[in-house]
Amino acid sequence: IRSRGVVPLIGGERPAKSSERFVFFRIEDPSAFKVALRDFKPTSAKDVQTNIFSICKARQEVKLGNKPAVERIKLKQYLIAFSRKGLDVLGLEGKKTGDVRFDTHSMRDDKDYLGDQRDWLPLFEQGFKPEQGIDEKQALHGVIAIATDSKSVLIWKIRQYIGLLKTPFSDDEDRDEATNDLKTLFGKSWDPRGEVDGKVRPGENRHNEHFGFKDGISQPSVRGVNHPLPGQIQVDPGVIIMGYDSDPVPNREAWTKDGTMMAFKKLHQSVLSWDDYVSTNGQRWKEFFPGGQEAANKLYPPLTNEEGAQLFGARFVGRWQSGAPIALAPIRDDPDLGNDPKRNNKFDYSVRDVPGVSPHEPSDYYCPFTAHSRKTVPRNLDPYVSRQYLESGAIVRAAIAYGPEVTDDERKAWQSAPATKKPPEVERGLLFNCYSSHLDSGFVRQSTGYGNNDYFPITGLIPVKHGQDPIIGGPPPKGSSKEEKKASLDAAPTNQFQDGDEVDIDLKIPGDTLSCYTVSGQISVRPLTQAAPPGADNPFFVTSQGGEYFFVPSIPTLKSWAN
Ligand code: N7H
């Protein structure tokens, strides 16, 4: 898997990247494109591991006082992936990947279904006509991701002493150089339609996304490929890579083996609105304190308003900004826990130490059911949902932040504007991308079956309305015209179902007849007191700007396409 698969990150390894560019393209001359493919070298998962190893080794040498073998490590890593239209153009029309969604839909077809509430960027909208679907002459055919990282081993040592955290070399230059090389290589055979650039945040925020939370902590560990860290969720290889154990699609065509599906989404984050919402509501910390008001009154010292705001934000995410899970640190942040990879995934949301709370039932005593990381990976829903079903929904995430840091001037201007006339927020957020062998089991299930589903996680025999995921939630708009959709969102941005509706929640693993079952029943609505999603006047803080589904071929398959 490691040397054949091009997934740039498998289970739990941090990607060696400081900067990443996604070049979205159309293939203009398929034969010439295939000739160029001969000289295109995608980076294998094994290469990524070797790169990380060489950085660690050089740093170790410096630590021991030896001269490192290399003084500057420049990494340029590439991944190529194709949309369904792109595969067709390459001559694979009629050849199915086996992923029915990918074979029959572009992400644009699923815009409403995924709950994307606002207009997309023209790059991802290109030529889409609601009645006819994607315009063949405009559709994106593929993407090349270029991830760069430039590290000076010696300067890193000096930085350790003087605490200088700025990157001394520009990863952007390497990225631009790599883009130019690609443009020369593919020449007139392609039309690069748009570039979307991501960059890790500077200094101590390097591993944080724009709301300030450490990202990339929890990844599935692939059985037989890597050693799991304590508590890390383990999945069979076929959940992530096509053609192995637990691949939900039986009898895939041979060319898909070692490939994977990638879902890309550009997600805008309203950082100032988030900060404001969290700090305003943080003062109410006693209302959502584990154990209730009585326990909150006994806490000594009580939380400051700032700590209350941090707790409020942490209950939205399921982790503190440091990465510490609130399931283990429910009241105050614990940065040592957040930074310790051997402990920061060692939990499964069971509550074992509270009298009156059953350790054998899902409980939201410490962590709300709606917290983003719990919605997307509930870890344990015994006895209601099988572990096998939860495992089958795993994705490998490889997101990177984009956009500038918030400046003091921007913050001041935003804060001083009246509530009804806030200036639009600067374009910044997350270039989300993830991998799994099957879109409906992974990305799509997490978005629609989990994030946008008020009734997930299943916590009893009768569905209970917990609410939307406050980070990625947002129900599909109602109505058919643009105006109707907008009106429905403005009127009720958080309600997908009405009180008293009948719901069916399908817990079926495709291709598996043993563990299929459906929970259905009448809704019992519960007040959303725990960590209520933003209200009508404060819509969701993450807005999708568009994206696409891509198939990432294995290196041998890619080479077999080259002329
Ligand atoms: Fe999420 N955030 O900063 O709030 N996410 N996410 N995500 N996310 C996670 O464990 C975030 C998005 C998952 O195993 C953390 O790495 C933001 C989408 C999954 O415990 C944080 C955005 C989807 C996990 C964030 C965003 C997911 C996860 C905790 C968009 C899937 C692992 C750190 C702007 C469709 C859960 C960590 C587990 C964790 C944030 C998007 C899925 C901090 C800001 C679109 C599976």
From TrEMBL:
Similarity field: Belongs to the DyP-type peroxidase family.
Keyword Cell cycle (UniProt): no
Biological classification of the source: Eukaryota, Fungi, Dikarya, Basidiomycota, Agaricomycotina
Cofactor: heme b
Biased composition (Basic and acidic residues): 193-213, 331-351
Keyword annotations from UniProtKB, A to Z: Heme, Iron, Metal-binding, Oxidoreductase, Peroxidase
Keyword Secreted: no
Protein name: DyP dimeric alpha+beta barrel domain-containing protein
